[in-house]
Amino acid sequence: MAVASTNSAHKSASTFGFASLIETMKTRIARYRVYRQTVNELSELSDRELADLGLHRSMIRRLAMQAAEEQFAR
């Protein structure tokens, strides 16, 4: 009987680890989608529109990364 308990405990731990891995992957994919959407939207703006916002085209990727991190830091 002790063997069955040990095996079921091991199975639960590995299942939890797999579930954690899946959640981590879901979060990373969602964060990447926010990043890509932000990059795409800002890239569509003209240089003048970006300047009106106080931005330069070289700042787009960094701002997108910050936006994605802030959204999932909550």
TrEMBL record:
Domain (YjiS-like): give its ranges: 28-61
Q: Which domain of life is it from?
A: Bacteria
InterPro entries for the chain: YjiS-like
Protein name in UniProt: YjiS-like domain-containing protein
Organism of origin: Ruegeria arenilitoris
